[in-house]
Amino acid sequence: MNVPADVVEAANAYRGSNLTMLSQKFYSEAGNQALDRSLQAFAQATGTTIENNLVQADSGDMVAKTEAEVRAGNARDLAFFTDSRFIAQFHNLGILTDLTDVVTELTAELGEPASESKNYCQFDGKWYAIPYHFIGIGSFLRKDWAEEKGIPLKESYRWDELRDICLEISDPTQRRFGWGMTVNRSGDGNGLIENVINSYGGAITSNDGLRVTFNSPETVEAVAFLGDIYTNPKYKPMLPPGIESWTDSSNNENWLAGILGYTRNQYSVYADAKTSGNPVHEVTHAFIDGVGPAVDRPILFGQSQALVVFTGAKNPDLAKEVAKYMVSGPPLLSIAKEAPGLVNPAWDKVWDSDPYYTSGDPAFPTLRTISQQPLPLETSTGNAFPQTPSPGAQASVAAYVLTGHDAGGHPGGPSGGGRGRRLRADGRDLRAAGAAAVSRLEMLRLDTYLGVPVDRVVRAT
């Protein structure tokens, strides 16, 4: 891989220097390898040494481990993490360096960054993270199964419509299971539950991130809707065996095995199918997402991987040069081609920098639209997404508060094998059970992570 001459010149002052890096692991092994090749190309061309370590973001103690390293004086020089999941927590801990100078320089060169990154990477007008690449997130439907039933292919479906489609295309005798999403402890389970709640008009917090608003009629309705899918015998034919104990990789594996009719995921599952030549790729209909009763379009604005420099980093200036190198040109393109749809440009002008981004796959135009769409997305209940970043809300999601319960009102909590309790009614009225679960979660768990005293909790009515 050729490293541009201007990049080499900018890094001349650091020849002989070492840089340590922490990278959030892609759900694409080929993408991880492409990342390392691009970093080593930079190191060879600039006479530097780069040590890159991969980390699994869903380990559960990511923030605590990273803070401990920084406090102990062992901060990595450069790192990247998903902006909507981690940056507010790191900023709240006071362990991020102001990177406004780098973002200002990149904006002048590459145009505006992805819409959502403006919400999650800057605080009080200052940028504490550099948008690296836009992560494709979406929903996937087996278009061949849908076409057999005369079901139209659309950019979005109502959640209840999608549920009914999944039942219609299911046939357990042929190992066809329509619904490929779990509510067990996992990032995918978190994403499904939170999105359904949001599209029904509920939210963990108010728009400013300062008040707990989780316990609302809209949240209860959303929880009851999901609970019905996993408990009503009517929908049993569309649930694959073992879905109650699925972890983050399970829906990927089952989708690639060709037994699921629908799943919701990062584009890693799409990328894996395409790059491996899996025939499921040719029969995949990629669409935006589900729509709830409080919105007229999906609440989906994606995420970005964002580059950060921790306080106490030993080589912060070299880290900035490496960051500027990574966000465009051959380094990003090489990874994007290995993880199609998962890794996309985070900057406007990068989208037009190579024909691959504009015509390399039918899904790319939709992903670009999502990355550049005007925000926020508003609900009829007054919520506006993305909301102001809340370290407490991010921590509560990271601790699997949403998935670690059942609709009977019992906190489930973490469990060793990922076998958290699922949404269930315990033979009682599902809506009443859902209300009990929502109330108990808010009072016993959410306040802990949000740092809001119980007597100051404001509930939506």
Describe the structure in your own words.
- The protein is an alpha/beta fold and 461 residues long.
- It has helices at residues 5-10, 29-46, 62-71, 83-92, 100-110, 117-120, 143-148, 159-168, 187-200, 217-231, 250-256, 268-276, 316-326, 329-338, 348-351, 355-359, 364-372, 391-398, 430-450; strands spanning 18-24, 49-55, 78-82, 122-123, 126-127, 130-135, 137-142, 156-158, 177-179, 260-266, 284-287, 289-291, 303-308, 343-345, 377-378, 384-385.
- Helix content is 41%, strand content 15%.
- The strands form 5 sheets. Strands 2-1-3-13-6-14 form a 6-stranded mixed β-sheet, with helices on both faces. The chain has a 4-stranded mixed β-sheet with strand order 9-10-7-11.
- A hairpin with a 5-residue loop joins β15 and β16 (384-385).
- α10 (217-231) packs across α19.
- It is globular, with a radius of gyration of 22 Å.
> If you average the pLDDT, what whole number results?
88
- Work out the number of β strands: 16
User: Major sheet, described briefly?
Assistant: 6 strands, mixed
The rough form would be described as globular
Quickly count the helices: 19
Our measurement of the CA-to-CA distance between the termini, rounded to an integer number of angstroms, reads 58 Å
Q: What Rg, in angstroms, do the CA atoms define?
A: 22 Å
Structural class by SSE content: alpha/beta
**Strand coverage percent:** 5-15%
Report low-confidence residues grouped into runs of 5 or more: 407-428, 453-461
**What is the share of helical residues?**
40-55%
Strand line-up of the largest beta sheet: 2-1-3-13-6-14
